Amino acid sequence: MTHSDNTFIDIHVLQTVPPSCINRDDTGSPKSAVYGGVKRARVSSQAWKRATRSVFRDSLDESELGERTLKLVDRIAKRIRDLDPDRDETASVQLANKVLSASGIKVKVEKKKTKDDSDENTAEEHKTGYLVFLSRAQIEALAELAANAPDGEFSKSEAQKALKGASSIDVALFGRMIADAPELNVDAACQVSHAISVHEVVSEFDYFTAVDDNAPEDNAGAGMIGTVEFNSSTLYRYATIDAVRLSENLGSKEAAVRAVDAFIRAFILSMPTGKQNTFANRTRPGFVMVQVRSDQPTNLVGAFEDPVRPDADGGVLSAAAVELLEFAEAGDKAYGTHPVIDAEMVADPRALKMLRSKGADSSIGLDELVSTAVEATRSRLVGE
User: What is the pTM of this model?
Assistant: First the structure.
């Protein structure tokens, strides 16, 4: 493959988030990282992938999406009973267990306590040893194979063929790893970086009290007290899609183009839900740049190795947008490269004003931003 065959879609996002704790570590503190010599707010790639998958449900049919679960046996067994109502629950569970084992995925059987003491330790729970990510079409194919097997027997090749069948958009994008059967792995077509703040952050603590509604009137004390650690930040978020690999994973260039459309929108509009009820921190990005590249995907976080300082008004997003554009331009000039397309959406009025003052005003709306990237991708993949 030559550079001219490559098609990478890079998405760069600047998003201001108020006091929040959207992604916690094991101690309950907001995740952080040291970059450029100072502490930054951080949101893990896993958290933002999960949030992006949740937004897919707004634009894609459920049949086009996958399920990541430990309970594949129950999921397949239920579908077997739908296909063959004469088969009881025990038989369908055994059959689901058998078809998964035939494919190479190991299933653990654990004793499950029931509420009835007399039946304690009598129920069994069938789980895979790790979360397995399958498309709904693949779950359906495994159930059909099991339900239609005349003597309940099927080969490894038949089971793996069902499991490798029609992939969902999210499995094709984020990939799949099955430790028991590496031949069933799917290489991800999408990468998401850990989001980090473009500036230094200092964590703060919210000391809170809660009043007991039924406390005596002469009781001035709180029913509950506690603290929540939080920070405020302007995040740089980055993701990239390898459109050629995505097309291979889905087995269709047109399906890949649809997936690119869905991913760009979902990634821009998504937000992890950690402590959202506590902080109501849901915001939308102030600046988005999408580039379609034929050379290589390019994370532009280097623009913020020197922490962005607040401007005269106390904000950092405007300066960060300028830094990002200048860093991208300098990089392409130094390496003699240039993106196939380069489009920006500026939703923050102060950033728009600053970019206009520097002659860099070419802001478009979300629909046009996405359609520009999608049509460039379609042109390179499909040739239209």
Answer: 0.91
